[in-house]
Amino acid sequence: MPPALTLAPHRALFTTGALATLLPMLWWLLELLGRASGMPLLDHPVPAMLAHGQWMLYGVFPPFMAGFIFTAGPRWLGVNGPGARAFAPLAAAWLLGHLVTLAGLVHNWQWLYQSGQGLFAVGMLGLCGVWLGVIQQSRQPDRRHAWLVAAGFALGAAGALAGLGWALTGRAELWSAMRGLALWGFLLPVFLTVAHRMLPFFSANVLQPYQPWRPDGLLSAFWAGSLGHLLLSLLPWAWPLSLWDAGFAALLGYTSWCWGVRRSLINPLLAMLHLSFAWAALALALSALTPWLALGAAATHALGIGLFASLMMGFVSRVSLGHSGQPLRAAPWLWRLYLALHGLALLRLASDWLPPFAAIGHLLTAAGWLLLWGIWCARFVPLYCQPRADGQPG
Asked: Which CATH entry fits the domain spanning 3-384: 3.30.559.30, 1.50.10.100, 3.10.129.10, 1.20.210.10?
């Protein structure tokens, strides 16, 4: 590992995350091309669709989330961040997990694919351990956000273990548990927790006058909405889950408005966070409608691309600029790239709504993802390998 990558957690973990945005989608694009041509290019040890879901959920997001929380979280808690001995093994586990997973899928070696999922699970368990260690150093009276992030990481680790169990046994219920825990126990509640902490804070620094809107119980309502979906999805009836998601969508939409999504447009770097958060309400609304309108995987991709991926781009770009000594502003190229990612999310949703368009829509989405994240990686990864432009440490 280049020495510069060990200077701060975000350097090593964002570099791993950058690779994670490309490898899974490159494999998926090859799979889609094979399907479109009628001549599959690859044989796989597990169903390709299920491998795609598992790899995206547990391969793409965790390294970025770890890099962000190890950078911002210690500031919440008034402690030092983890050292290289703590974060470098996590980056290595996730990096090796990607390479091993890819090799297993390309060469049709089930044991190698299983090993890759085992490495992802090790990474999640290690993430839990390192973050708990950071929290325990703190004497801050309010550690709610930190503890809730830890709870999300723990549920994410449980989901990763369920995914490993599926890879080992092929039991469909384990894959379903992996997906449910990843989306509704890990990714959504953690992203909402971080947004609750950071969006009003960043907005107050830019928008004047600005009164942060964080009523008592809002954070608990976010978690109740997400975990409630997870539990209600186990019922044999669709209507309770639809009603729950509709109410959750209304809460998220109202929160987005109160936090100032419209006013944020005066500052592109801030707008990147607010516009991404607005996807949460849309995704839950789609989830509420799915049983009645047969929307396919639209709600899942509204979460995965519209909310998670775009919010990840917003937060990670902000940290990357600030901690490389660059000005905290979204350059025109970054703003256009970010808006294109929203367009990509809409394209993927259209693929579910227009069945005749599905095959070409899936191909264009995969190719567009690789193009957008390839540009992002080419611009940001070099920053992680260089000293800060302002001469500061970190």
From this structure: 1.20.210.10
